[in-house]
Structure formats: C-alpha cells, structure tokens
Amino acid sequence: MTTAATPQPLAPFGARLHRSIGERGRLCVGIDPHPSLLQAWGLDDDVAGLERFALTVAEALAPEVSVLKPQSAFYERFGSRGVAVLERVVEVARQGGALVCMDVKRGDIGSTTQAYADAYLDPRSPLFSDAVTASPFLGFGSLTPMVETARRHGAGLFVLALTSNPEGHEVQRATAADGRTVAATVLDSLRELNAGAEPLGSFGPVVGATIDDAGTDLDVNGPILVPGYGAQGGTVEDMRRIFGATARAVIPSTSRGVLAAGPEAAALVAAARRANDDVAALDR
C-alpha cells in the first residue's frame, strides 16, 4: 500500500449504493475472466487476454450498471501482472461511475484481517473498492477490523450467509448452542451493524439466488448481494420467493449471463440493459 495522504471519507456505502440504484438500476455484473470465457472471446489464456477481456467489460459497463464485481482469483492466478490488471479494472470502473465490489471472500483474525482491510477498504490502496465480500466463519467478530475500516472510509461489506453451493449447508445451516443457525447469527450481526442507518445500511449478506427456503429473516436494513442470477439459473421469481418483501434490497449479480455476449462492447451493453430491465421487476 502506498503512503499517500488519506483522501476525505466518502459518504457511507449504503447511501451511495441506494443513490446509484435509483439512477442506474440494481444490477451487479461480475468481471470474471474465466478461461472458458477468454476462449469464447477468441482470446488467449494469458495476461494479454486477461487485460483485453477485463478492460473491455469495465469500459463498456462502468457507465451503465450500479456495481461491477471483479473476482480477484481470476486475476491473481497470473501473479503480479494479473493484479496490475485488476488495479486498472478498479480504476476504470470507478472512473466510469460504477461502484466496485471486490469479490475476495477474505476472512482471518487480528492483524491479518486488518491487512486485508488495508488492501481493499483503505483509499490509499490501488485496490481500494467500495465494498468487498468477506467470510465470517472464523466468527463474525473476526471481521471487526474490516467493519471498522469500512466505516472509517465509507466502504461496505457483503458477508457470506446462505450461499447456493451444496457444501455450504454443513456450516451455514448448522445450529449453534443458542438454537440459531450459523446463517441466522451472521444476519443478526449484520442487522446490528445497520441499526438506524438510512436510507440503507452498508453491511449486507451474500445469499444465493437458487437456495431453498432461507428459514430465517433476511431483512438486515442493508443491501443483499445475490449471486447466481442468470446463467446459473436464478430468476426474478426465485428472488421474489426467497426474499419476499425484502426483495427491494436485493443486488442481483450475474457474470456469464452478460459476459457471454462479448467481445463487442455494444453487445455487452445490450445484455446488461436487458438484465437490468429484468431485475427492475423486483421494485414492483
């Protein structure tokens, strides 16, 4: 991280996200340079292909959608050169007016968690993002350095709660000594962080678009990041079923459903607009 002076704090992430949704809609598009997508675009699976793919998406969609969500693993696999591309993606996305949610799913304890917070939630970092995804499964309190850093700099967190992968059930739906599921304890902790926030809190859960009945209250007075919409099978009707009246807090996330329309920028924009129009039904 550089040692430049800390910029003035941004407005809280929840307030900025609420404003962006009103202006641009609620769609989040993942920028996931999966090898199969690079191949489908006629690109080589190397740093040059990664850069062409990721920057094409960022430049095309940053002026269009509320949130862009790079999945860091697809950049990290190329080492420092891939991370340099990720830094550029963040810069281009934010210059285009999109909020950036860095999909890193980090979770650790103590000084290590603080280091992750410094990497992604401190504006002095070239990877500074408006929000990050985080894993609470070392105990929600282990995320305190991320929470405090996010509050200090107007950033947000999306914390794993009820994911669609079948392996997640053994942890997320396990029951604690007080009778609550692990997922319910995560949601309760987020609810506490967002208490009194208006118009929207800055701390939300990650809940899959294809889960069965959640079995718990999903309203945390904050945004709900919902991956799995589109190519992974999640639909607007699924989100209505899962979230009910809380569906207006949902941020549906798609990647392949939009990215497969490339490599032409106009086709990416058209696909994103169609998806954004589709999920606008959650507001009705």
From TrEMBL:
| Catalysed transformations (reactions) | orotidine 5'-phosphate + H(+) = UMP + CO2
Family recorded in the similarity comment? Belongs to the OMP decarboxylase family. Type 2 subfamily.
Q: What protein does this entry describe?
A: Orotidine 5'-phosphate decarboxylase
What keywords tag this UniProt record?
Answer: Decarboxylase, Lyase, Pyrimidine biosynthesis
Q: Which residues form the Orotidine 5'-phosphate decarboxylase domain?
A: 26-271
Q: Name one GO molecular function term.
A: orotidine-5'-phosphate decarboxylase activity
This chain's source organism reads Nocardioides jishulii
Enzyme Commission number(s) of this protein: 4.1.1.23
| Annotated catalytic residues | K105
> What biological-process GO terms show up in the record?
'de novo' pyrimidine nucleobase biosynthetic process; 'de novo' UMP biosynthetic process
Task: Quote the pathway field.
Answer: Pyrimidine metabolism; UMP biosynthesis via de novo pathway; UMP from orotate: step 2/2
**Tree of life domain:** Bacteria
Q: Which InterPro entries match?
A: Aldolase_TIM, OMPdecase_type-2, OMPdeCOase_dom, RibuloseP-bd_barrel
Task: Indicate yes or no for the key word Lyase.
Answer: yes
Q: Fetch the PANTHER family from UniProt.
A: OROTIDINE 5'-PHOSPHATE DECARBOXYLASE (PTHR43375:SF1)
